[in-house]
Write a structure and sequence with these properties.
- The protein has 398 residues and is an all-alpha fold.
- The protein has a single domain, classed as Ammonium transporter fold.
- Helices cover 70% and strands 1% of the residues.
- The chain has 15 helices and two strands.
- Strands 1-2 form a two-stranded antiparallel ribbon.
- Helix 8 packs antiparallel against helix 9.
- The protein starts with a helix and ends with a helix.
Length: 398
């Protein structure tokens, strides 16, 4: 097939947009921590991008998209990107471009997990954990949903990563937080965000990059990409307004709450972006904003120190979005119908895929974190935590 220059250009742009989301996560999280951990939090996202880039080339892409082994994982036929070329493939764009597009998804998933490590992780242990997590959690889940694994065979729909990226990273962050333990002084004295404008900047980068995240997942420059692009924005807007309204009822309408709701809407529309109408996107975003806000309040009541809220926003937002895909999918958009059109089978398939991803990500992450902690220690010393990770881990200060 001849090279489709329009699609190739769109996928190049989309890849760049999604890449920008990884430092966007760093800025978002960096503003939420205390000043003494600001550099460290941003640095983790950059380190993740470099680590995952190499892991993806060496074996990650092959494990995710290689020939299926038992519905669970791909083989190593593409290890080192063997056989991946730059000539137009069957879809009209270079296979190496598809590899790059999937690489940036793997990177942002691991970047989201850094929420569970905030202000207390030892850098050397984090590097080991990140490589293990990407290989043993992200890659299998990508294969299940997109690479010919059991979830794909079952018919579970995940247009752009609701299960693969968001459920996996959100529940992984919760597992890590439980293993590594609370920050020193958590619940005793204030740990307020030190730079909310920086978090708002991170949210802007995420919202912007999400157009490539979802629109690019059409893998073509066509009407489906345009529809996915548009419903992405609508769901984000609905989620942001829902969270804003809910927080206003309880007190002040915070800017941080508004952008958190927008991200919840973005997360929830991710698996559904290629299957729902604008009306469905509004419903998905509104419910996501309320559900994720409620989960955050529950987390606070339970005194859980997953305080950057990857679990409540990405984990629970992704879970709702995956289930919502099985509810709101409309055949007129992309040929797939959901519960509102009477397709109970699709709803069941999506629910199975979502809960399987949730259980797998949480359990395997917990085991990995526990093993790394016992082997080399995940956490910095009490003195290093008191001084702050900027100085103790990087020898730098703001």
């Amino acid at each position: 097939m001849a090279l489709d220059t329009g699609t190739t250009a769109w996928l190049l742009i989309s890849t760049a947009l999604v890449m920008l989301m990884t430092p966007g996560v760093g800025f978002f999280y960096g503003g939420l921590v205390r000043r003494k951990n600001f550099i460290s939090m941003i640095a983790l996202s950059f380190i993740v991008f470099a680590l995952v880039s190499i892991q993806w080339v060496v074996l990650g892409y092959s494990l995710s998209f290689g020939t299926d082994i038992g519905g669970f994982i791909g083989n190593l036929q593409y290890a080192g990107l063997d056989g991946i070329g730059m000539d137009a493939g069957d879809s009209g764009y270079p296979p190496i471009l598809f590899v790059a597009f999937q690489l940036v998804f793997a990177a942002i998933a691991m970047a989201i997990v850094t929420s569970g490590f905030a202000e207390r992780v030892k850098l050397s242990a984090f590097i080991v954990f990140a490589l293990l997590w990407t290989t043993l959690v992200y890659d299998p889940l990508a294969h299940w949903a997109w690479g010919g694994g059991w979830a794909m065979a079952l018919g579970s729909l995940d247009f752009a990563g609701g299960t693969v990226v968001h459920i996996s990273s959100g529940f992984a962050a919760l597992a890590v937080a439980l293993v590594i333990g609370k920050r020193a002084g958590f619940g005793t004295y204030s740990m307020e965000p030190h730079n909310i404008p920086m978090t708002l900047l991170g949210a802007a980068l995420l919202w912007f990059g999400w157009f490539g995240f979802n629109g690019g997942s059409a893998l073509a420059a066509n009407g489906l990409a345009a529809s996915a692009f548009f419903v992405t924005n609508i769901s984000a807007a609905a989620g942001g307004l829902a969270w804003l309204a809910a927080s206003w009822v309880r007190g002040k309408p915070s800017s941080l709450g508004m952008v958190s709701g927008a991200i919840a809407g973005l997360v929830a529309i991710t698996p559904a972006a290629g299957y729902v109408t604008v009306t469905g996107a509004i419903a998905i975003g509104l419910i996501a904003g309320l559900v994720c806000y409620g989960c955050m309040l529950w987390r606070i009541r339970k005194n859980l120190d997953e305080s950057l809220d990857a679990w409540s926003i990405h984990g629970m937002g992704g879970l709702w979005g995956a289930i919502a895909t099985g509810i709101f999918a409309v055949a007129a958009v992309n040929g797939y119908s959901g519960l509102i059109e009477g397709n109970v089978t699709q709803f069941i398939a999506n629910a199975i895929g979502a809960f399987a991803a949730m259980i797998y990500a949480f359990v395997v992450t917990y085991i990995l974190a526990w093993v790394v902690d016992k082997a080399i220690g995940l956490r910095v010393s009490e003195e290093e935590e008191y001084v702050g990770l900027d100085i103790s881990q990087h020898g730098e200060r703001v």
